[in-house]
Design brief:
By secondary structure, the chain is of the alpha/beta class. It is built from ten helices and 14 strands. The protein has helices spanning 51-58, 80-83, 102-111, 119-125, 141-152, 171-186, 198-204, 222-227, 271-285, 299-315, and strands at residues 6-17, 23-36, 40-45, 66-71, 87-90, 159-163, 190-194, 207-212, 215-221, 231-236, 254-260, 263-268, 293-295, 321-323. The strands form three sheets. The protein has a six-stranded mixed sheet with strand order 5-6-7-3-8-9, sandwiched between helices. A four-stranded antiparallel sheet has the order 4-1-2-14. The longest helix has 17 residues, at 299-315. Bound molecules: adenosine-5'-triphosphate. It comes from Streptomyces endophyticus.
Length: 326
């Protein structure tokens, strides 16, 4: 259940790496978003987009170079003691002592966690109840991720940070983890998820943001972000035909096209009109459109467009190196 309470509130956040005297690198350049209580917000992005740099600021692991972060109404860096007991963090690499058993690991962690669940309950929650006596080094990669999750949720956190929670899991393990995250969310836990899997964000997130070059390139509910993208039609141009032989593309409602070899890609915001016009033309011309693929806008398309633009801007000479000495 979500409320209007802003459990995470980030305004114009900036993070700069470097010593401040020479040229420094701005990894986060004015990021703003908020997450309501009980909401699951996913942060997506190309490699190096600044997701981890942003999340670390929200977790209070570093002070921002600019902007403001509030978690549960407090500054997570300067008021760490007030925030830390109420949040759970699942890191990418748990790094537990490998000789300890699963049960010993959880109990050791519980010793440093206020209001911890009983170890047995924490392990049941993540489906590791039967692996309690196994040494950590004997766990599979997927089981280790579940142990990470058990530790992150041990203190019944109000806010849970999940960094790539299903990396290395097989399809079944991923589904199980999603189920668990849904259950935690249903119990009112607010979740900030970073992930490379678009399907994961699509399946779990109430809202999401796609980061690119330290900024938010697109944000909103999944359906809103998808709706901002064009649909696509691809097919092979029949032998002897060229793009100019088709009906005028703007008369089909096509807003852009690309040709690669014999394959033509059309982008449109009016999928039915474009597909109908194209198929009627093919019928009248008596040709077959081989490898025809008609698909509505998707989160993947939104993400790929941003990645394409990222590649385009990387090829341009300007960079994010900022002269800090100025
Ligand atoms: N300690 C650091 N010192 C200097 N630059 C850093 C440091 N940590 C990260 N960066 C740079 O900041 C940028 C953002 O990195 P960050 O790890 O936040 O991205 P990300 O979106 O989490 O990437 P990925 O998906 O690849 O994990 C990258 O260009 C990275 O090289």
């Amino acid at each position: 259940m979500t409320t209007n309470e802003r459990v995470i509130d980030v305004t114009d956040l900036r993070r700069v790496y470097g010593d401040g005297t020479k040229s420094a690198y701005e990894a986060v350049s004015g990021v703003s978003f908020s997450v309501g209580r009980g909401e699951l917000f996913a942060l997506l992005g190309t490699n190096g987009a600044g997701k981890t740099s942003t999340v670390e600021l929200i977790e209070g692991l570093a002070a921002p170079a600019g902007g403001r972060v509030r978690v549960l109404g407090h500054d997570p860096y300067s008021e760490r003691d007030r925030v830390r007991p109420r949040i759970g963090v699942m890191l990418q690499e748990g790094g537990f002592p490998s000789e300890l058993t699963v049960d010993e690991t959880v109990r050791m962690w519980a010793g440093c966690t206020s209001g911890a669940r009983p170890a047995a309950e924490a392990l049941e929650l993540v489906g590791l109840g039967r692996r309690r006596e196994v040494r950590v080094k004997q766990l599979s990669g997927g089981e280790k991720r579940r142990l990470d999750l058990a530790l992150a949720t041990l203190g019944r956190p109000e806010v849970l940070f999940l960094d790539e929670p299903t990396t290395g899991l097989d399809a079944e393990g991923r589904q199980e983890t999603w189920e668990l995250v849904r259950r935690l969310r249903a119990d009112g836990t607010t979740v900030l998820l970073t992930t490379h899997y678009l399907e994961e964000a699509e399946s779990l997130a109430d809202r999401l943001a796609i980061m690119h070059e330290g900024r938010i390139a697109a944000t909103g509910r999944v359906d809103e972000v998808v709706a901002s993208q064009p649909s696509r039609i691809t097919f092979d141009l029949p032998d002897g035909y060229f793009v100019g032989d088709l009906p005028p593309l703007d008369s089909l409602g096509v807003t852009g096209h690309e040709v690669e070899g014999r394959q033509l890609l059309l982008r449109t915001d009016e999928l039915q009109r474009a597909a109908t016009g194209l198929l009627l033309w093919a019928r009248d011309a008596g040709v077959e459109l081989r490898r025809l693929d008609v698909r509505g806008a998707s989160l993947e398309e939104a993400f790929l467009r941003i990645a394409r633009e990222a590649k385009g801007s990387a090829d341009r000479p300007e960079s994010r190196q900022k002269e800090m000495a100025r």
